[in-house]
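Q: My labmate handed me this sequence with no annotations at all. I'd like to see what the chain might look like in three dimensions before we decide whether it's worth expressing. Could you predict it?
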Amino acid sequence: MVKMNKLKFLFTIVIAIPSGICFSDVKPTDLKYIEEIVVIGNKEDVKEIPGSGSVIEQSQIDRFDHIDLGQLLASTPGIYIREEDGFGLRPNIGIRGATSDRSQKITIMEDGVLITPAPYSAPAAYYVPNVSRVHTLEVLKGPSAIQYGPHTVGGAINFVSRPIPEAEVFEVELSKGMDNFYKYQTAVGGQFNRVGVLLDGLAYGSDGFKSLDGGGETGFKRNDFSIKVSWEPDTNLAQLLTFKLGYGEEDADETYLGLSDADFRTNPQRRYRASQLANFKTEHTKVLINYGLMINDYWRINLKGYFNQFHRDWNKLDGFVLGPALQAVLSRPDQFRTQYKILKGEANSLPLNSQTLDVTSNDRSFISKGIQFSLTQNKDFGWANLESKFGARFHQDHVERQHSPISYLMTDGNLVTDGISRPYKVWNKAESEALALYISETLSFKKLSIEAGVRFEDIKGNKKNFATNSNTKSDQKFTSPGLGILYNVNDQITILAGAYKGFSPPGPGSKVKPEQSLNYEYGIRYSKTDFNLEIVAFHSDYKELIGRCRVSDTDCKPGEEFNGGEIEISGIEFSAGVQSPIIQGINLVANSTYTYTSSSFKSTFFSGFSQWGLVKANDELPYLPEHSGQISIGFESNKWSLFSTVKFQAKMREKPGQKPIEENLHTDDYVTADITATHFYNEKLTLQLILHNATDETAIVSHRPFGARPNRPRALVGRIKYQL
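A: Here is what I predict for the chain of 724 residues:
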């Protein structure tokens, strides 16, 4: 139940603070500013942040017409992507060493509010906004990121949706490609007197690039629709009220089951017969009400209310009822020959638990909702400027899990149920409510800017196990301070440094300690008209690292949490870009990023968390590449553009260890290249060809959930974009 005293607290702030301020007759100036749907702004604004951050603008998203968030984020240093399905449907994103597993250690937002299904109760999310509908992507990695908790050990990502256009717009996009890939997108809207409207829709999908033994579907389809309405009252004060409603759905024949390494090297796009019943379905409804008020040139208020309802059901093979784990079968097929042949459909199951396949409907329902308030004061003293910001958020979320197993026998290459009724494997409900407060002061004078802030969270959780009729409660409080410094040596050179305390809370009812980190960064930026360079070093000391058991983990229960003691992560981020004319009417555009990362556990211990197991001091963390980066080179004119982007990533170990990395315990090194050619036929019509993975590089990008998994093979896509 909602604690009314906390709600009253927030509404009291909203009412009381403006009452003590003298209103002035100020006409609206920048309505986008008071919406507060952005956390950075544009690429120029990044230079003014007392810390590190990145902005991926619409032109970059549009250049390759990305649908895979991982491919897009590769242009940002300090971001780690673990691929899973080849299309980016299940993102695994980490920042500066925070685990990428299900993006659980970063804060993900859309238009400045929490967007993951249950960020407190179930942070291991399967959802991020569809990239094709994103206008701008913002990444915060430095001290400023602590404003956007609850997970602040790594950083925050904010998806900025398409703004309501100032002029009337009608857009249609059509894309077709290999594997029967399609993408249809439309947008219509504009300003009508003081009311703005935007309607947009997206539908895309594919037959998939994998081939199921014996035949069957391996593709997916997604639909996403939204409406956004804004109203600007005709008053002496700058005000803006915005309402956004969105609905999305997915139907994917996607499996947890991968391949043995030997089978992968023979045919990486193969799928075993045991995955024939795999299907993943979701529905997502989101509502955002946003009110912004600029009282005068110094005071700004923003109030948001949001609601997200998300449901997913993944029917998938979980393993054998009482047999070896799938990961063990696929990594050691000679040892488990019978089970291996059953997975491939080459042998029939005997009516034994060790040969009976467990196909489970992993049904989960999520709700998250909250209100958040911010008050910003900007005071110019002549010799200095002081920006003060106060933020408050009250949030509730919950997840209900019902994992229903059905047992099957492999019979002549098909899965046939044995008719035996089995109890729920998981049936529980976890719920959280959290009050978060944030205060920051940014003082700027002459060449120096200093930002000091602190975040406080009070989190109450409850987990009910319906199978055992038991309740477990938890109560957490934490404080995260941060300090960032920016010094402009001259018009071209800027030095930055910062330190902050990060926090990632355990789930409701958990008995493990919260994960904490001390994070440091320092670097230099160089910027001229046609060239920019940034080098940032980072270091993080973690305490009580949290690992979360998933369905694909062995010897632990899904949702169970573990502490991994102290670890150290350090690295260097490099980015550079140039944009310069080379001949009349043609510009060279080149960008490069590189990240070096080093990690180590600081103690020896044994963990029931299968991704760790026996850990020795100085072991490196799993799924954290030592080297990763991207190089992009292109030429553009008023009528055409041609770009090539090369992405590279070093192998990642899949269990803690020290060099060298053992065989079958790592992903592959890989280098992929994308090419895009665009013809701007006129101001209204754009024609585009995109070649993904031009060299058809094949690599094992993960052994999780179960077995070796491939990247997307070479694919050609044609695109037409028409705009009135």
